[in-house]
Amino acid sequence: MPALKNKEKILRLVDEIPAEELGKVVSLMEKLKKPKKKNIPEKYRAIYEIMGSYKDSLSSSEEFAKRKQEEKLLDR
Description:
Elements: H1 2-16, H2 22-33, H3 42-50, H4 61-75
């Protein structure tokens, strides 16, 4: 029930705010809605920045195994 009371309190407070200040309220609420960024140690930052960027260019292990099998057949 506290969440419902908080919502009601927020709505009451918003009704009392002057119209020219409502933009600030909206900005604050949007900021609070965004997920928080992870606190990544500096030494791992580069890894997290490129993570997933080569997803389409790397082959799956099945494709790799198939190519290796074909290479082995060619070597015989």
